[in-house]
Design a protein that fits this description.
alpha/beta; single chain; 13-stranded mixed β-sheet
Length: 389
């Protein structure tokens, strides 16, 4: 069994006590690094561009065997966007959010986030965002706790006493300037669920494949949990630099990691992997990235010793349309066809405040997105572990 029945308790009490007693001072320290103006890029979709570029000819000719059929089945297209620059003016206010997940054994898993939310200076702009009770994750995150695991901005490293740092040991991971999926307010909860899923897996001396690795946050956790070698794959070339910085601030051995700048849908990836050695596949991708999660499942056809597949980025309820027309049940069906029949889920707990938040959010988007088919209940985010027995 690679999936463990329970998670051993970590030793993070002293750290949490120190952090909570000093959180305002630490937040003040972090606020020094935040600006008040920033250039953003506003996606402006172009129908004629999307029409002509469903899948580029080059990629279409080099897809993993069987992936093209699945892309057609789920009507997934590769979309291109035009970007228009504009400037937002804002200040920041400190925000701390406490929530929880439901673990594999229905245990309550603490989930905490500290960061800063934008307070817009422009009254006309603020009028366009009439959020009063909508719960939004902070845009500038510097601390995340998931169960016994703590992630902290590396710029606070010098503020943590050595005795406190030694006490929490492997349960503390620094992220370089928190440039991470755990620092992205729209991805944070999905990534946190995937992070906790890893705490149930026996990584000792195993080869791991992290697909869509981004800054490598899942790879860092796998390494701390005893993985022998981790192959990180991401289509974005800058992900290599982000991973390198995270390895440095955590004093991890770079030789334990190997980064591939590659689209995971391309068949050339098969020639670059130590296929016979990989036992665990991580895919915190979800259904929003043009069939990459489907490709992750198909890749297991070529990994004869892969016994565990971790999927993230899913929810039980979702917005139909916008190519989000497949979700958890379909990905599980694909895995079961490949012998992954033992499934476990880590689920976001939905509170009354979440329902009230979503109710207000739904009223707002119905004013601006007529025709979209939204669930009447908030999406319940989740990650899952599938195992070959």
């Amino acid at each position: 069994m690679v999936i463990k029945s329970n998670v051993s308790a970590g030793n993070c009490d002293a750290f949490l006590k120190y952090f909570n007693n000093n959180v305002e001072e630490l937040a003040f320290e972090m606020k020094k690094f935040l600006g008040t103006e920033e250039v953003y890029f506003n996606p402006k979709e172009s129908d004629d561009v999307m029409e002509k570029n469903s899948i580029t000819t080059n990629l279409c000719n080099n897809l993993l065997p069987g992936l093209n059929e699945l892309l057609s089945k789920y009507d997934i297209k590769f979309l291109l966007e035009d970007y228009q620059p504009f400037i937002e003016e804002y200040d920041f206010e400190f925000k701390k959010i406490k929530k929880s997940f439901k673990g594999l054994n229905n245990e309550k898993v603490p989930f905490e986030v500290c960061g800063f939310s934008k307070v817009y200076r422009n009254d006309d702009y603020k009028e366009g965002f009439k959020y009063n009770n909508v719960i939004l994750m902070p845009e500038a995150v510097f601390y995340v706790r998931v169960g016994e695991r703590v992630f902290l901005d590396d710029r606070l490293k010098r503020r943590i006493p050595a005795s406190i740092e030694r006490g929490i040991n492997n349960n503390l991971i620094y992220l370089s300037h928190f440039d991470s999926s755990l620092g992205n307010y729209s991805l944070l909860e999905y990534s946190a669920l995937a992070v906790h899923a890893l705490s149930y897996i026996d990584f000792k001396d195993k080869y791991v494949l992290d697909l869509g690795s981004a800054d490598g946050v899942l790879s860092l956790v796998a390494s701390r949990n005893g993985a022998d070698k981790i192959i990180c794959v991401d289509i974005e070339s800058e992900a290599a630099g982000r991973l390198e910085k995270n390895l440095s601030v955590n004093n991890m051995n770079p030789s334990d990691f190997h980064f591939l700048n590659m689209d995971i849908r391309r068949r050339e990836l098969l020639d670059l992997l130590p296929a016979d050695k990989i036992e665990i596949v991580l895919a915190d991708l979800g259904p929003e990235y043009d069939g990459t999660d489907l490709a992750a499942v198909i890749l297991t056809d070529y990994l004869p010793n892969a016994k565990v597949f971790v999927g993230g980025g899913y929810s039980f309820r979702f917005i139909k349309g916008n190519n989000l027309n497949y979700n958890y049940p379909e990905i599980i069906e694909l895995l079961e066809k490949r012998g992954f029949n033992n499934h476990k889920k880590i689920i976001e707990e939905i509170t009354r405040a979440d329902y009230e938040s979503f109710k207000e959010y739904l009223a707002l988007i119905k004013e601006t997105e007529s025709g979209c088919n939204h669930s009447e209940e908030p999406p319940q985010r989740m990650a899952f572990i599938s195992e070959k027995l």
